[in-house]
Write a structure and sequence with these properties.
alpha+beta; Heat Shock Protein 90; 3 domains; five-stranded mixed beta sheet; transmembrane; transmembrane helix; Sensor_HK_TwoCompSys; membrane; EC 2.7.13.3
């Protein structure tokens, strides 16, 4: 299953979707929602009634506390069930208690906003969601079965058999559409908020950002050292060789050797300049992403049409990520696509840099472990962005990246 959610599978290939496990997973998700709702309703209502009846004598307080904390356990099952129709797991928003023991665990949970959000979701699930699960199951499967069974008791009701059989093929679509909507609501409510990610994950993200920034700074330093150091020395040597050639007799062996040496150093300077562009292009540092993309288009062996609208300079890390993404994409176009032309588009809207690279090649590009697209995805992810690739067999190929540049 390439698709990560039942909803995306239904939207992408409505007919092919019927031959995948997604309809059965949606059925299991919806049916298990009814089972979980009934069990949770019975248990929690019993605890609530007993707790309220015995709260005066002090016995009911622990029962009511259990009801207050019930959302933690119900939503844990909900996260597990969600994997039936959404393959990306929802992280647990709860932090480990500072000390071992039940008392520390209860105190930590009562102080967390996620606990009360989960209790609210549990209340909505018990009062509405599992009822809707039952209603959808009844409409998608129960009603067609009831209509198909009607001629058994009344032979004259055979037209209802036709209606029931006609409704039955729609059941996978109905169940999956509802399961996708319910899963989206569950993920929206149960996903951790920014403040609930935990110090460890926050530090990992901050550390990754620092590593990317340090790597880009080191690239700029290496490019500057090569440009201002080795390259300038080679240019000076070339000038000295040119002066030496003026002193040598024309067409003499010494003059020809000096000419060969001057030519070799010229080639070395050209290679060094190309290496500097690969490490960190000077145009990107001096003039920004737009000028650097123009240089990329000029050097590309495949004709590239540019459509760039960047009103101002962007943060250095975003410019660097955008440049190397387009550079790698154009390299892939030249090497693997067989395209006759490519297009590069760059826009900034609502503090988001959008880059799109299209080509008219053979298509079939897909991320592979250790491949170029995987490296592009890692670079975009490190910058906090998103990467999308559309490349059906036969083409065309579209690579689109969104990089936040706040």
């Amino acid at each position: 299953m390439r698709e990560r959610t039942a909803w995306s599978a239904l939207a992408r290939h409505p007919l092919r979707f019927l031959a995948t496990p997604w309809p059965w997973r949606a059925l299991l998700y919806t049916a298990s929602g009814v089972v979980l709702g009934v069990l949770a309703a019975v248990v929690l209502l019993t605890l609530a009634v007993l707790g309220l009846a015995t709260v005066v004598v002090g016995v009911g307080a622990p029962l009511l506390l259990a009801v207050a904390l019930s959302g933690v356990f119900v939503t844990r099952v909900e996260r597990w069930r969600l994997r039936l129709v959404d393959l990306d797991p929802v992280p647990d928003p709860h932090r480990a208690p500072p000390r071992p023991g039940a008392r520390a665990w209860v105190a930590a949970r009562l102080r967390e906003p996620a606990t009360w959000r989960e209790l609210g979701f549990t209340a909505v699930s018990l009062t509405a969601l599992w009822w809707l699960d039952l209603l959808v199951l009844g409409f998608a499967l129960g009603l067609p079965a009831l209509l198909a069974y009607s001629p058994v008791d009344d032979p004259s009701a055979w037209p209802w058999l036709v209606v029931g059989v006609a409704l039955l093929p729609a059941a996978p679509f109905t169940l999956t559409a509802w399961a996708g909507a319910r899963a989206a609501l569950t993920r929206m409510v149960l996903a951790p908020r920014d403040g609930e990610l935990g110090r460890e994950l926050t530090e990992v993200r901050a550390s990754r950002t620092r590593l990317v920034d340090a790597f880009d700074a080191e690239r700029r330093r290496i490019e500057r050292d090569l440009h201002d150091g080795a390259q300038q020395r080679l240019v000076a040597v070339t000038m000295r060789l040119g002066l030496a050639r003026l002193d040598a007799a024309p067409d003499s062996p010494a003059e020809r050797q000096l000419a060969d040496a001057q030519e070799e150093i010229g080639l070395a300077i050209a290679e060094l300049r190309e290496l500097c562009r690969g490490v960190h292009p000077r145009a990107l540092v001096d003039h920004g992403l737009g000028a650097a993309l123009e240089n990329l288009a000029d050097r590309s062996p495949v004709p590239v049409a540019l459509d760039v609208e960047l009103p101002e300079r962007l943060p250095p890390g975003i410019e660097s990520a955008g440049y190397f993404l387009v550079a790698e994409a154009l390299t892939n176009v030249a090497r693997h696509s067989g395209a006759a032309g490519a297009e590069v588009e760059a826009r900034v809207r609502a503090d988001v840099l959008t880059l799109a690279v299209r080509d008219d090649g053979r298509g079939g590009a897909a991320p592979a472990e250790g491949g170029g697209l995987e490296g592009l995805a890692d670079r975009v992810d490190a910058a906090g962005g998103r990467l999308r690739v559309s490349s059906p067999h036969g083409g065309p190929t579209l690579l689109q990246a969104e990089l936040p540049c706040r």
